[in-house]
Every structure is written in C-alpha cells, then in structure tokens.
Design brief:
By secondary structure, the protein is of the alpha+beta class. Helices cover about 30% and strands about 25% of the residues. The chain is globular and about 70 Å long.
Length: about 500
C-alpha cells in the first residue's frame, strides 16, 4: 500500500519516539489543540488535552454525578449567596507553586476579568467577590442565587493554573501550560502533536503511563491506519464504514459511547435570507435527518428533537421537523424565493463524525428544493476564528458546529448559544440569535433553585427556539472510538474527552 506523505511522516515520528517512551499512550485526534491556556479553551479536542494537565474544583463523572476534586467539600448559605469551599491540601502545580486559596482566587479573578474576554466567563459571572479565608478555604459571594454553579465548576475552562507561570510567561503561557494534573506539559509541535509526561509529585493516584501523546490527524483513514498498524493506541471518530473491519481485527476494539453533543447548522440571524423564519423552517423541512443518521453516520447518532441532547438536565423532546420537501418549497415561495436561492454553507472537515459527508448530503438535499449551497471548509482553528467574527464583519450565513453540554446542565447548552448577551466574539452565540422572551426564561432558570421549575422553564424556552427554527437541528452524536487491545482503563467520557488518568499499556 502506498502511504501518503503525511501518514509516512506520522509513522516515522511515532516509531522514533516509541523507544524513548515505551509506556506512552498515543491518541490520534481529528484536530490539533487551539490554545493550551485552559481558561481560553472552547473546543473538546483541546479540552481533552488540558484535562490531563489541569484540574477543576469539582469533577463531572461519566455517570453524571458531580464529585469534589481540588475542592474537598463546600457549603452554601441559606440564601444561596455565599459559597465556602474547603480545598484539598498537598496538591502542587507542576512548577512547584502551592495549590492554595490564593491560587484559586487568582484563577477565578483572571477567568472573570473582562479585559481577558474569555468566552466562557459567563459560567461564573454571578461571583461578585471571592476571597481567601485562610490557606485552604475560599469564600465566594454571588450577586444572586445561581442554580448551575456547582455544575459550572466542573467545566474544564474553570480549571486551576499556576499563577506563577501565568505571571512569568505572559503571552507565551498559552504554549506552556502548568496545572496540578497527573500529567505535565512537555512539548507542542503545532499542527502535529502535543506531548505530556507523568507528574511524579501528583497528589492523587499516580498514573501507570509515563506519558500521553496527542496526534493531530484530520483524515479518518489515516487515523484508522495508525491504530491498525499499532502506531497509535487510540483513534477517535471512527468512520462508520470502517467499523466492521476494525471489529473483525484481532487486536482492536471499537467502543460506542453516548455523548452530550448536539450537531447542528446555525443560521446567521443578521444576514438575509436567514432573517426570515420561513426560510429557516424550509431548510429544516428540506433535510432528511433520519437518512443522515442511518446512512451517513451508520446509525451512530440520534435525530434531534430538542436543542440539547438526552442525558442533560433540562432536556425534554419539544418537536420534530419531519422530512417534507413539498412544505419546504411552499415556505420558500411564501418568503419570495419560488425560483430558489443561493447560500454559502461552512463546514469543518475532521472535527465531528463524518462532518464533511454530512454537509455534502445536506447540500444535495437542499438542491432538491431549489437551494444552491456552496460549501466552504477551513482548518479548525481558522474555522472557529472565522465563525466568531463580530456581527459587523461576520459574513458566514450558515455553518456546521457541535455543542457538548459538558456540565450536564441545560444552562450551558442553552444560555451560551441562544442568549443575546452571548453573541460572539465575547460569547458563543454565533447565530446572533436574539429573543427577549428566551432571554427572560433563561435568566429565570439560572436563578431558580427549584429543579422542577427550572425544567419547565427550559421546556418553554426550547419550544420557542424550535418553532423559531433558530438552527437546522440535526442529531446527537454517538462517539465511535478505536482502542487497541493492549490499552486498559481508558475513560471515554460522555463529554467527548478521552481520558488516560487510569489507563495502562500491557
């Protein structure tokens, strides 16, 4: 078999490294890291890397339970405004800086500093004041009760990082992260790989692995070739057409794992023709989501019936745009496009399961109702930057993206993407969607302690979003991961992170 130049380079790189790192787990991802500053991370592949280097105060388990982590326990005042965290003692950052209350205060103040403009600052924006009571106690005062606070403190972007390293390294810190995690950063060959080594002074159970290497391999066929040849131990997003062959292999397993990720195409509500709800609804009726899940994803997905996926608090089915090209044509005609229209549709390639194939299928289905869609693709970091342009310079009409509600709470899956305050570039609302009724419902749900009331508010909000056709609602992903038999203890998390804390190589 003739190898591509990229595959040959990757094979040589891995072979040369294997003798030096006999116990290094090699994970082939679809995209490279974007930044290694945990507070600035907005994508799951980067979060996977950072989850080995940095740690959060609380952790969301695959079961959905939240457990203490760098914080050992906490109390909340009766009025819900004062949170007291008791911190784990004995943890240190990789550079020797103590993990203590002062470090927690530094990290949260940095995360919330408007000058830093971190995308996910809204997660903790109810914190009005934070102070160190003593070396192992932190007290946070909120401006108002905040129901998802504990869930938000599990988010990887709220992780603790060394204040010393951040101050000393300045702008270069994003290439040289320092956390408290089981693995320390070693090197980053941008566009190629990130190397981590075991942190010998880790406060918790010492990893069996000496290191972890994350390879950036956009091509699915190349990722599969690497894992089949034994040059990578793990490969994410297995193409459905490769599943049966890999399952038949003697030394590779294929693992199917549910996820909290919803795949969608957002519409830019500031640009015609996406300003017209009839056009947005027409596109939803024109796309056969069942066909995409069955034939493009090989059944590794679930057609969306809400803007968030099952397994997230607040989820409830709110509707279905059945495949109805005749209705799509009627709506287009009502909107003044009886002769069709042209749009540009952006798509990543290698970020999500069969993403470019999904987009090409949608392109074909839209053509059947008179919508001529031109597909544009970009490298992942450039894709995020382009779709994140502010409204006055943003020319993206529609784009394929995915969102994992990694806190397990609907606030993160809805507030971040549909609240007017979260328009890019400061937030993640790339659609520039704005509805005052939705804003009010989401604000109320954040401040209401009663989970039953919160669930009702989210159902009402999602019903409006659905009827408004804010997106082209597609599907929830099933993670398909190839893992070699010599790997044990690997965690494939519903939040789309592959975690090697407990992994070993036999």
């Amino acid at each position: 078999m003739k190898l591509s130049r990229r595959l040959f380079v990757l094979l040589v790189s891995v072979l040369l490294a294997s003798s030096a790192f006999a116990q290094t787990l090699i994970i082939a991802q679809g995209t490279d890291a974007v930044t290694l500053d945990a507070h600035d991370v907005t994508d799951s592949p980067t979060a996977t890397v950072m989850s080995h280097i940095t740690e959060t105060l609380f952790r969301l388990l695959p079961s959905g339970d939240i457990v203490p982590w760098l914080a050992e326990d906490y109390t909340v005042s009766e009025d819900g405004l004062t949170w007291t965290l008791n911190l784990r003692e004995g943890a240190t950052f990789h550079d020797g800086t103590p993990f203590d209350a002062a470090a927690v205060v530094y990290n949260i103040e940095r995360f919330l500093d408007p000058d830093n403009a971190f995308t996910f600052a809204f997660l903790l924006d109810r914190i009005e004041n934070i102070e160190a009571v003593d070396e192992s106690t932190v007290q946070m005062t909120l401006s108002s009760p905040f129901a998802p606070m504990l869930a938000h403190l599990t988010h990887s972007s709220t992780a603790m990082q060394s204040p010393t390293a951040i101050e000393e390294l300045g702008d270069t810190y994003s290439d040289n992260p320092v956390g408290t995690g089981p693995f320390a950063f070693e090197s980053w060959d941008k566009g190629q790989q990130v190397d981590l080594v075991r942190f010998e002074d880790y406060w918790g159970d010492m990893p069996a692995l000496e290191g972890v290497r994350f390879l950036a391999v956009p091509e699915g066929t190349t990722r599969m070739a690497l894992v089949e040849a034994g040059e990578a131990h793990v490969a994410v997003r297995v193409p459905p057409q490769d599943v049966m062959r890999l399952q038949a292999a003697e030394d590779v397993d294929v693992e199917l794992t549910s996820s909290v990720r919803t795949i969608y195409i957002y519409f830019n509500h500031s640009l015609e023709p996406m300003t017209d709800v009839r056009v947005r609804q027409a596109i939803n009726y024109a796309v056969n989501k069942e066909e995409i899940v069955e034939f493009v994803l090989g059944g590794a997905g679930r057609v969306s019936d809400a803007p968030i996926s099952p397994g997230v608090f607040g989820y409830t089915p709110v509707g279905n745009y059945e495949y109805n090209p005749e209705r799509a044509r009627e709506l287009l005609a009502e909107a003044g496009y009886e002769d069709g229209l042209e749009i540009t549709l952006y798509s990543p390639d290698g970020r999500y399961l069969q993403d470019i194939q999904v987009t090409e299928t949608i392109q074909s289905q839209l053509a059947e109702v008179g919508i001529d869609a031109t597909i544009e693709t970009l490298e992942w970091a450039a894709y995020l930057a382009t779709t994140r342009e502010p409204i006055e310079s943003n020319s993206v009409q529609a784009a394929l993206l995915g969102w994992g509600t990694v806190t397990g709470d609907a606030d993160y899956g809805l507030y971040a993407l549909f609240h007017t305050d979260q328009w890019v570039p400061d937030g993640s609302n790339r659609a520039f969607y704005s509805n005052s009724e939705i804003d009010d419902l989401l604000n109320e749900a954040r401040s209401t302690a009663d989970q039953g009331v919160r669930a009702e508010l989210y159902e009402e909000a999602m019903s409006i979003i659905w009827e408004d056709a804010a997106w082209l609602f597609l599907h929830s992903e099933t993670q398909i991961t190839a893992v070699r038999d010599e790997v044990s203890g690997l965690i494939i998390h519903p939040t789309e992170r592959v975690l090697a804390y407990e992994a070993s190589l036999e």
